Amino acid sequence: MAALFTGKVLMANREQDEVETERELCWALENKVLLLYFGSGQCPRCRQFSPLLKDFFLRLTDEFYVERASQLVLVYVSRDETEEQQSAFLRTMPRRWLALPFGDAFKRELELRFAVSEVPAVVVLKPNGEVIVGNAVEEIRRAGPACFRSWQEAAELVDRNFRLAEDFDNRSRRSITDPIRRLKYKLDKKDKEGEGEGEGED
């Protein structure tokens, strides 16, 4: 899924952090169902739907509702008229949402690619970028969080519950640079193992 955003920038909601390197994007988007939410804080239909989408997202990802967040990521693609309007809208939405920066020309490319003509629209994608649902607004209204299970099956996600428990140690609070730090640790470890092997051969 990161391939869709290769060379692009995503913003972390309510923070100045940019999720822009390929590694960071892979970490944020890999093995997850991706929702592209095309909307606007000024659109009356969006104002009705956005609280439902917020609740839907929180019930699947917030620790208050679930022990472990579902494999779900949302990117807000704004049709707001000003950057201030986009920021004001996002301040009312979950922190885990990502957003395309205001005024990014990639927005138009996404609208054309996924045939989005009106808002609100929620495009549901597999990790490889294939479309699961062209516009899930009515499905979310009707079924709520229950519809995620069918998306998860369609996306053929690797179930993280099958991983060993130690994989999750100290990983509940990840920063955006965490995968880079872990990669460095793995490289350091390999270097040390390589040195150890070299010493044994002498």
TrEMBL record:
<dbReference type="InterPro" id="IPR029520">
    <property type="entry name" value="RdCVF"/>
</dbReference>
<dbReference type="GO" id="GO:0005739">
    <property type="term" value="C:mitochondrion"/>
</dbReference>
<dbReference type="Pfam" id="PF13905">
    <property type="entry name" value="Thioredoxin_8"/>
</dbReference>
<dbReference type="InterPro" id="IPR036249">
    <property type="entry name" value="Thioredoxin-like_sf"/>
</dbReference>
<protein>
    <submittedName>
        <fullName>NXNL1 protein</fullName>
    </submittedName>
</protein>
<dbReference type="InterPro" id="IPR013766">
    <property type="entry name" value="Thioredoxin_domain"/>
</dbReference>
<dbReference type="GO" id="GO:0045494">
    <property type="term" value="P:photoreceptor cell maintenance"/>
</dbReference>
<dbReference type="InterPro" id="IPR012336">
    <property type="entry name" value="Thioredoxin-like_fold"/>
</dbReference>
<feature type="domain" description="Thioredoxin">
    <location>
        <begin position="1"/>
        <end position="142"/>
    </location>
</feature>
